[in-house]
Amino acid sequence: MEKIVSAKNERVKKWSKLKTKKGRLNSNQYILESWHLVSEAINANQNVEVVLTTNKQYELHQAEIDAFNGEVIEITDDVSKALGSTSTPQGIFGIVELPKEDHFDSLDMFGSWLLLDQIQDPGNIGTMVRTADAAGFDGVIFGEGTSSQFNPKVLRSMQGSQFHLKLLEGDLLDWIGKFKENNVPVYGTELNPQAVSYDQIEKQDAFALVMGNEGSGMQDKILDQTTKNLYIPIKGKAESLNVAIAAGIAMFHLKK
After folding, report:
1. Does the UniProt entry include the keyword Oxidoreductase (predicted)?
2. pTM of the model
């Protein structure tokens, strides 16, 4: 097994840049951190090109790593710290080819979809993706201004659910137009006079649910294009709900 001992190694420098959007686009790769995510990616038939592991992590997962068909490189703790996005990295990473854009056809329209409008917090994104996975959704669409699905913090927060769903990116207005062309309702989430309580909507198989920015909510131009806007009644004295909590309530209510 090849071993890299220096954080100044050229390959390490290149892999470290995968923590940035520019680095990912230049290399057509992204980096996963932790054995849980690396093994999830391998089991989901993602194109994991290289596994980087400290000796400690190799000893913990030797059988699984030996069964991996790609390149395996041993790294030192110093290299692990250079590649990690946490203060105490586990010491195992996967270098993965960026997936090609998922094919999306009219049949996909008749599933349940979560649309993210300028959601910034990686923890919120991860919670919503995991909840969509748990609720049986078909996919999640990352709108413009939403943190990248390949951001290391977002990847870590999604905890592998990204491999169980279709994840797409693009202009939400375009996607909303496609749903409406196929008579699939698009529900916004906003407390305004035109909104209705979420529990007045019947469960269904085909719909899209839009969740807006943590501070400012959904953009007006997107609110104007939805089929109907929903709100969750607050019975106590709290001013609002966390966006991920609100998304979970709405997703499990709406999904048939």
Report:
1. no
2. 0.92
Question: From start to end of 102-165, where are the E strands?
Answer: 112-117, 139-143
Comparing C-alpha atoms, which of 147, 186, 189, 124 is closest to residue 20? 147
Asked whether the domain spanning 106-254 has the same topology as the one spanning 2-97, the reply is no
Cβ(213)–Cβ(117) below 8 Å: yes
Stated as kind and residue range, the H or E segment containing 251 is helix 243-254
DSSP letter (8 states) at residue 191: -
The domain spans of the chain are: 2-97, 106-254
Which residues, listed in sequence order, are joined to residue 96 by a DSSP beta bridge?
Answer: 30, 48
Please give the Cα distance from 178 to 106 (Å, whole number).
9
Q: Please tell me which residue, 99 or 35, carries the higher pLDDT value.
A: 35
101, 105, 130, 156, 193 from 139: Cα distances, Å: 13, 13, 11, 18, 30
Answer yes or no: are the C-beta atoms of 93 and 38 closer than 8 Å. yes
Task: Say yes or no: domain 2-97 is CATH 3.30.1330.30.
Answer: yes
What is the tens place of the pLDDT at every residue in 136-184?
A: 999 999 999 999 999 999 999 999 999 999 999 999 999 999 999 999 9
The kind and range of the H/E element at 246 are: helix 243-254
The counts of H helices and E strands in the chain are 11, 12
pLDDT at 106: 62
Residues linked to residue 245 through DSSP beta bridges, in sequence order: none
What confidence tens digit (pLDDT) does each residue in 25-46 have? 999 999 999 999 999 999 999 9
